[in-house]
Amino acid sequence: MKNKYRGYRDLCRYTLIVLGAFGGSAMLVGCTDDPRKYQNLQSSHQLSLQKSSEFKWQYLDPDADFSKYKSAMIDPVEIYRGSDAQFGSTSKNDRVYMANYIDKTFPKEIGKKYTLVHSADSRTLRFHVTLTGVKKSIPVLSTISHISSVGLVTNAGMQAAGGNGTAYGAVYYAVEVYDAQTSRLLYAQVTVQTPDALDPTVSFGYLDAAREGVRIGAHHLVQKLEKLSKQEHTTVVEKTGDIGEAKGARRGQGGA
Fold first, then answer.
1. In angstroms, rounded to a whole number, what is the distance separating the alpha carbons of residues 59 and 50?
2. d(C-alpha 210, C-alpha 192), whole Å
3. Is the pTM of this model over 0.85?
4. From CA 186, how far away is CA 234, in angstroms rounded?
5. Band of the pLDDT at 160, cuts 50, 70, 90?
6. Whole-angstrom Cα distance, residue 89 to residue 188?
7. Using one digit for the tens of pLDDT, what is the confidence trace for 5-56?
8. How far apart are CA 101 and CA 235, in angstroms?
9. Sign of CA dihedral 245, 246, 248, 252
10. What residues contact residue 40 under an 8 Å CB cut-off, 6+ apart?
């Protein structure tokens, strides 16, 4: 993943040169920055950097048993106000719009796995989502760059390197998952989400790509929790490593 990420950065620089030569729009292309370890998050001091994950910063309680949780409560989305936010030139109204969009999208996806409730019992999770940044797309340029021959080649390379499409926006956010009854933090993630680099359907409006990122991220969150609920024991492999299943963690494996 390190080599893939380095390749994506190199490709970003190459894209700036190529598209600049085809019309002087290089400064508009840009590349999506990594999400930060936002200092004002409740889980900030527990997050660790992941080497090979779309969720750049994560925390997992090694003793959490996700298989027992059957229902979920979802807090209203919070708009991050720390100085390390990544909103750029996004207006206050656009931030509120995106927070409202997350408020509508995440419950629909989480509700596919958990029963949504308003009161907690011992089998209830509580989700807290914080919108930490928005990168706007550049309308017209993003569309043109996805239908031109040069743009198609460039975006194919971006996708292969794990990057976002040219002139595409993105959404940054954090998710913190608690035991709803005890308020114990079980899992947290910080991520940036953006559409498939070859998807031209989200290239028209300046928030289209960010909205698609919300839909993708919500789906991937539920997939992550589904995976955790099937593991009998999980752990953080190393402080700056990947969250995954410990060796020999399943019952009856690994010896004494």
1. 10
2. 9
3. no
4. 11
5. very low
6. 27
7. 344 444 444 444 444 444 444 333 446 789 999 999 999 999 999 987 889 9
8. 33
9. negative
10. 80, 81, 82, 84
Query: Mean of the pLDDT values across residues 118-138?
Result: 95
Q: Which residues contact 41 (CB under 8 A, 6 or more apart)?
A: 47, 80, 130, 174, 176, 188, 190
| CA-angle at 66, arms to 64 and 69, nearest 5° | 125
End-to-end CA separation in angstroms for the chain: 34
List the beta bridge partners of residue 174.
Answer: 130, 190
Report residue 10 as tokens: 């190199």
Instruction: Round to whole Å and give the CA distance between 198 and 17.
Output: 20
Distance set, CA 167 to CA 70, 76, 81, 200, 202 (Å): 40, 30, 26, 11, 11
CB 180 within 8 A of CB 122: no
Residue carrying the six token digits 């190529």 = 18
Could you give the 3-state DSSP secondary structure of residue 198? coil
**What is the C-alpha separation between 59 and 239, in angstroms, rounded?**
10
